[in-house]
Write a structure and sequence with these properties.
alpha+beta, PH-domain like, DNA Binding (I), subunit A, 3 domains, two-stranded antiparallel sheet, about 55% helix, about 10% strand, binds zinc ion
Length: about 450
């Protein structure tokens, strides 16, 4: 268990270290302001000090809050607040021109950190000692709150770090047993937070952690058995509602089908409204648009709406505006960047851009493999392109930077790591060039490029 809490603390530190440049600057300014407040006492003039130190918008507010945070930390260091310290804090808040609710919010933030650290230390041995319980209630009392309430808030705000720490631990020890969770439940239960209250406090963070695993697997185009097990374990243990359960289960099925295709196992489906030759197998069928490559050059290339069928020997595009087929043997090259569109270069008719409406990655992968099987060659252009691989570190930082939300619309599901400047156009795999987009916004963006 000691290891578990080391991991949790490491994760909290890791998250706190995000945005290091800004964070460092703000911290320095905060120190400067707090120092001036102490040195000048009642002669402290906020406007004047800000002007002298050169702290301006947009940093002012954050520097002031950092200064107040430092003062709170000093007061909270011994994990209790005396009457004298209380009035000193109130005075500081006034001098720093902080509204009472802002001051209270900042104090709760710091208090929660102190509380969380104390909680982690108390749980280090896996069991909570009675004296730890008393220590925690003193902190809670100073914050005008109860221990269960603060624990709820701690897990709701730091639950992500808590869960990640737990899974780092699981991964290291290969123990996906429920015993560790059971111990945590016992410990928080002893402090008055029941199982259901704990689970509901941490549920959102659990969903975000599961989504992070999923997005990470998508970036790798590989869902490891451990990742799958972790996500399923979370579904079983954190009381996800039916809708979220289904979402995660469907996404896992989708990932695994995609991986099966990558391994050359193409699905067989019954295609409707197309006439197949005897023995011909259909692998995919779905709504799509088609843009004729030659017509596009002359500017008259409007997209045709229709239905795309991929078989083991050809694609068939059926549309009221004119249908066509293209044999796999005529395909010279398929360009696919794993978006919902792929471009086909072919000798003869049927070359052009196909834009899929649904399960796009799957269709492109199926098509690529069906063609490869017929031609026994690998012509996909992307194989020769620079690597699109985003390292695990970058993925984790990017996910945290966007708070597990789509950069465009704020959605928290179907998240994908997107290269802001595509790799094909010289974009890198570093933090600065990777953002978090939901599938919908990603598709929208790619259609514009
Ligand atoms: Zn979005």
């Amino acid at each position: 268990m000691a290891k578990l809490w080391d991991n949790i603390k490491a994760q909290i530190r890791y998250l706190a270290a995000l945005d290091p440049v800004d964070g460092q600057k703000i911290e320095e300014w905060g120190k400067l302001l707090a120092g001036q407040l102490y040195a000048r006492r009642d002669k402290f003039d906020l406007r004047q000090v800000l002007a002298e130190t050169g702290i301006r918008e947009p940093w002012e507010r954050r520097a002031i809050e950092a200064a107040y945070g430092l003062l709170i930390e000093r007061v909270w260091k011994d994990q209790k607040v005396t009457a004298g310290e209380r009035s000193a804090l109130d005075w500081s808040a006034r001098m720093l021109n902080l509204r009472p609710d802002d001051a209270a919010r900042l104090e709760l933030q710091t208090g929660l950190q102190v509380f969380g650290k104390c909680l982690a230390d108390a749980m280090d041995g896996g069991e909570i000692a009675p004296e730890d319980k008393i220590r925690l209630s003193i902190i809670a009392g100073d914050l005008n709150a109860s221990v269960p309430l603060l624990m709820g808030q701690f897990f709701a705000s730091q639950g992500g770090a808590f869960l990640r720490g737990m899974f780092v631990n699981f991964a290291e020890n290969h123990q996906f047993n429920d015993a560790a969770l059971g111990k945590v439940l016992d410990a928080v239960g002893f402090l008055g937070l029941g199982k259901n209250a704990f689970l509901s406090a941490i549920r959102l963070q659990a969903m975000q952690t599961a989504e992070e695993y999923l997005a990470s697997a998508k970036a790798d185009e590989n869902l490891s058995p451990e990742e799958e097990k972790t996500i399923l374990w979370m579904l079983d243990n954190f009381g996800f509602d039916a809708e979220h359960r289904k979402y995660f289960e469907d996404e896992i099925v989708d990932m695994k089908s995609l991986m099966a295709v990558r391994d050359g196992k193409l699905p067989t489906i019954s295609a409707r409204d197309v006439e197949l030759d005897s023995g011909e197998l259909a692998h995919y069928q779905g709504p799509a648009s088609y843009i004729d490559a030659k017509r596009k050059k002359t500017g008259e290339g409007n997209a045709k709406r229709g239905r795309l069928t991929i078989t083991d020997s050809r694609i068939i595009f059926a549309s009221v505006d004119g249908s066509h087929q293209l044999k796999h043997s005529k395909v010279l090259e398929i360009q696919s960047d794993h978006s919902n569109a792929f471009k086909v270069m072919a000798s003869g008719r049927g070359g052009g851009i196909y834009v899929l409406d649904r399960v796009p990655r799957m269709a492109a992968a199926i098509y690529t493999f069906a063609v490869r099987r017929v031609k026994r060659t690998a012509h996909e252009k992307y194989e020769g392109l620079p690597s699109r691989h985003i390292s695990r570190d970058v993925r984790q930082r990017v996910f945290q930077r966007y708070g597990g939300r789509c950069a465009e619309c704020g959605a928290s599901q179907y998240l994908e790591h997107d290269h802001i400047i595509p790799v094909e156009k010289g974009g890198s795999n570093s933090d600065q060039n990777v953002q978090l987009l939901c599938r919908k916004c990603n598709l929208k963006k790619r259609n514009l490029i």
